[in-house]
Amino acid sequence: MFDKLGIETDYLIAALLVMMVFVITLCIVMIARYNQLASKYRKFMKGANGKSLEERILSRFREIDSNKSQITDAVSRIKILEDARDTSFKKIAVKRYDAFAEMGGKLSYSLCLLNDDNDGFIMTSMHNRDGCYTYVKEVIKGNTFVILSDEEKEVLDDAISMKETLNTR
Question: What is d(CA 23, CA 157) in angstroms, rounded to the nearest whole number?
C-alpha cells in the first residue's frame, strides 16, 4: 500500500522508531518530574490536617512580616549612615616638619581634614623647646581667609587632590 503512494517502508519504520524513542524519553522525564512533585507534596502534607497546615502558612506570613520590618529598619539605618558619610571628613593629609630650624625636631605638624565639598580645617601644631602652639584654620570650599604657611598650603593641596574612595551615588 505504501509503495503505491511512493513512500518507502524502510524510511517510514525508521521515522516511527525515532518518534517512539522520543515519546518514551518524554514519558520517562514526565514520570520523574511527577515523582519529585509527589514527593514534595507528601512531605508538605505529612501529618498535616487542615488546621495545622493553616497554622504553618500563617507562621510563614508572620515571618515574612517580621522580615519586612527588619528590612525597613535596616534601610532607615543605612540612610542615616549615608547622610553621615556625606558630611564626614574623607580627605586627610598630614605633614610633619621642624618648624624652628633644628630647635624642636620634627615634632611640628599640619593636619588637614576635608569633606567632599572641601570644607573642613587645618590644624597646625608648632613645637619648640619652650612649648607647643596649636592653631586651627577653617577651610571653606578649598579656600581659607587667613594666610597659610608653606606646610599648611601643602597639606591643603594634598587633601583637595585626594579622590573620594567610596562613591555610591
Answer: 77
